[in-house]
């Protein structure tokens, strides 16, 4: 997928669905729109090359799954702790898949030169991959305080912001949505975690 196509797709998604309703949907439509594959109980398909141009299946081993479960269990005492545990799991998973995907040197933030390059990820790739990991965990009952919903997008040039997308989880007791945004950081670094309203309000593109 060429960079202009990615931009148009992001802009269209924002214009088609207002911010207020974006955190309530299921992820199935997101996967279909971007030609990505939903996770199973043991396997994810890693998007890279910008806009899921490349899709690499990755099968987690029993050892991997135990590691993820233990990391998430460590956040069971509160919603805030679970969000921190999810961030830890996302960072670990990026490192784990890097040798297979070729993403060890993935650059954080906007870098147009990465379009079409194996292992480089834009926000569509990052939002999809983070959602897939968290959906796998959800399928296995490893999330106590949150449910995983569809990624959302902000910015469409007319508002002075570059289009950007993020994975989203919703706290079960309060209904508050949170962005789990791994795009601004290089491979294996902890993602940004913040209330989705704050994420929408941010004008940062990196």
Features of the shown structure:
6 helices; two-stranded antiparallel ribbon; 206 residues; disordered N terminus; 38% helix
Can you walk me through this structure?
It contains six helices and six strands. Residues 1-24 and 157-161 have low confidence and may be disordered. The chain has helices at 3-16, 28-33, 62-73, 79-101, 123-139, 196-201; strands at residues 43-48, 54-59, 146-154, 164-171, 177-181, 192-195. It has 206 residues and is of the alpha+beta class. It has a four-stranded antiparallel sheet. The chain has a two-stranded antiparallel ribbon with strand order 1-2.
Record field, number of beta strands: 6
Backbone CA Rg? 16 Å
SSE topology string: HHEEHHHEEEEH
Low-pLDDT parts are 1-24, 157-161
Which oligomeric form is depicted? Answer: single chain
Cα(first) to Cα(last) distance is: 21 Å
Helix share bin? 25-40%
Count of helical regions:
6
> Quick one: overall form?
globular
Q: Which class of secondary structure composition applies to the elements?
A: alpha+beta
Strand order, largest beta sheet? 3-4-5-6
Strand content: 15-25%
Q: Indicate the mean pLDDT.
A: 85
User: How many strands, which pairing sense, and closed or not: the largest β-sheet?
Assistant: 4 strands, antiparallel
Can you give me a brief rundown of this structure?
The protein is 38% helix and 18% strand.
